[in-house]
Each structure stands twice: as structure tokens, then as C-alpha cells.
Amino acid sequence: MKDFRLYAITGEQFHPGKPMLEVMEQAILGGTDIIQLRDKSGDIAEIRKKAAALRRLTAQYGVTFIVNDYIDIALEVDADGVHLGQGDVPLAEARRRMGDKIIGISTHAINEAIQAERDGADYIGVGPIFPTKTKLDVVAPVTVSYVQEVARMINIPFVAIGGIKLHNVDEVIKAGATRICAVSEIVGSDDIQGTCREFLSKLEKAEESQ
Q1: Is omega for the bond preceding 128 within 30 degrees of 0, making it cis?
Q2: Which of 33, 67, 88, 152 could disulfide-pair with 84, CB 3.0 to 4.6 Å?
Q3: Rounded to two decimals, what is the model's pTM?
Q4: Which domains does the chain carry?
Q5: For 123-141, b where at least 16 C-beta lie within 10 A, e where not — what string?
Q6: What is d(CA 76, CA 57) in angstroms, rounded to the nearest whole number?
Q7: Cβ–Cβ contacts within 10 Å for residue 42, how many?
């Protein structure tokens, strides 16, 4: 997979009145490398529609497009990959169905990260770092100590996620994260492009100072 620094996930509850496509296009224009469709509504017809529209948008800009949970929909719209949680389809089964497309796995502890790497995940999500209201089924925060563990022990790309804001991202970067995912801080922003650029600027500064 292409390397990345900023990963944005859809969160329509954070931008009432603003169309999802418009919001995600602003994130792309701000420098986001990966867009993920995460829709827990269970309305498959609606998710299919959103996935097809986001696939067209991301293809237009050459940005990686990931579908959360729904392997069938990811394949149907020719998404670049799928992101799965710990309780979803086993990675081996997902790999059989997805072929060489990207598979990301959410992890909340170092044993899960090690297992995901061993099983052939292309990248892992590391979090939630801080408390977050983005998901209803969220686990307890893993804190930046988990970022430090993963940075030391895992070789595949990892993205820090969960409650990450402009005011606390420096702490996450200092712990060893070089890739950041944000939901509400990006899509709920009054200046989406500016917020994305600020995240990227903080990542770049950290990289330059190493």
C-alpha cells in the first residue's frame, strides 16, 4: 500500500447539514491520504450508495479509499481495501476474499497488534488513544503507552486513532506515531482543510526534528 500520514473517517453526525461528499472532499484538499467510510446504520442500500460516491471522489484525487466492515461492498465498488475490528471476519478469510487489496485491523493491545502483523494485515489501527464519542462500542482508552509499545515492536504501518485533536496530537507523535487518524476534529471543523494542514504540519515538524 502507498504510505500515508493523515487518515480521515466519515462521521456524518459531526457535520449536520453539510453533505458527506463535500466534507470529505475538503479533507482530501487539505492533504488527507486515506478516506474511510464508516457507517454503522446497517442500511446496506445507503452504505452502497455512499461507498460508490466516495470511490468516485477518491479516484478523482488519487486518494486511497477504505470501507469499514463491509467486504462485499468494498469489492463491489472496487475500494482499495477494508478495515476490520477484532470481532469481525477473521483476517485469513478476509484475505481470501480481498486478494491483494489493503486490509487494516483495529488493535487495542500489543498481543492483538502482533497477531495482526503475523496474520498479514497491511496496517493496524492503534487506539483509542484518548476517550472518544465517535463510536458507541468503544473500548477504554489505551493511552500513548500503547503507541510507544507498537512503535518499538511492530514493523507494519500503524495509525493512531481515538480522541485525537490538534491540542493533544503532539503527545501522540512524541510517543512514536507517524500516522494519525481523526474523525470529529476533521469532519466537524469549520475549516476542514486548515485542520488537516495543521495535523500534517505537526507530523512534518516532528519528522524534521528527528
Answers
A1: yes
A2: 88
A3: 0.96
A4: 6-208 (3.20.20.70)
A5: bbbbbbbbebebeeeeeeb
A6: 16
A7: 7
Dihedral of CA atoms 25, 21, 131, 42 in degrees, nearest 10, equals: -150
User: For cell 482508552, what's the residue?
Assistant: 141
182: left (phi over 0), alpha (psi -120 to 50) or beta: beta
**Cα 160 to the center of its chain, rounded Å:** 8
Q: How many CA atoms lie within 13 A of 51 on its CB side?
A: 25
Q: Distance between CA 172 and CA 78 in Å, rounded? A: 33
In the chain, what is the greatest distance between 2 CA atoms, to the nearest angstrom? 47
Measured distance CA(56)–CA(43) in Å, rounded:
20
Q: Is residue 131 within 8 Å of 163, Cβ to Cβ?
A: yes
pLDDT (tens digit per residue) in 141-187: 999 999 999 999 999 999 999 999 999 999 999 999 999 999 999 99
Active site residues: 38, 106, 135
180 CA to centre of own chain: 8
Strand partners, 9: 36
